[in-house]
Write a structure and sequence with these properties.
The chain has seven helices and no strands. It has 165 residues and is mainly alpha-helical. It is elongated, with a radius of gyration of 24 Å.
Length: 165
């Protein structure tokens, strides 16, 4: 015995409702996942910063490499990892400068590349470091890390040390 077919007037509205629900829920779910990833990324960066500031450069370097692989889109993680090369082993500053130049050249609108370049140049070339720091600060003028980098760069610059408030 054949099953009676369901008239279109019963199933078409259900399919339309399902389509509308899918169109509404999918973007919201994607935004939630992006928000969740952004939170994880911020937490990862918040973990590296104090390690660097307390002088655990090897820890920042190894953990930063792992986190940069997990979050390849994060220039902030790359910047802290680059900075950790500078005070480390022989040749570390040259390696850091090269990596920071590559980051700032590849993404000139991203302030973290300029932040990394300012930190990597440090006392080696204080004028270029200050110029890189100014570019970073122009993009994020009130960010505490960028303000710290400006003060640090001014301290490295012997002729401008008096400009530090």
């Amino acid at each position: 015995m054949a099953r009676p077919s369901v008239p279109p007037s019963r199933w078409i509205p259900r399919v339309l409702v399902l389509g509308v629900v899918t169109l509404v829920v999918a973007p919201a779910a994607r935004r939630f996942l992006e928000w969740e990833r952004a939170g994880q990324l911020r937490a990862a960066a918040q973990h590296l910063r104090p390690m660097y500031l307390t002088g655990d450069y090897e820890g920042v370097s190894s953990k930063g490499e792992r986190l940069s692989k997990r979050f390849p889109e994060s220039s902030e993680l790359k910047a802290w990892t680059i900075l950790s090369l500078s005070p480390g082993a022989l040749g570390g500053q040259d390696e850091a400068i090269e990596a920071a130049r590559a980051l700032s050249t590849a993404h000139p609108a991203d302030p973290w590349g300029w932040f990394a370049l300012a930190g990597a140049l440090g006392a080696k070339d204080s004028d270029q470091a200050l110029a890189a720091c100014e570019k970073a600060l122009a993009k994020m003028p009130r960010h505490p890390d960028f303000l710290w980098m400006r003060a640090r760069t001014l301290l490295f610059s012997q002729d401008r040390a008096g400009e530090v408030p």
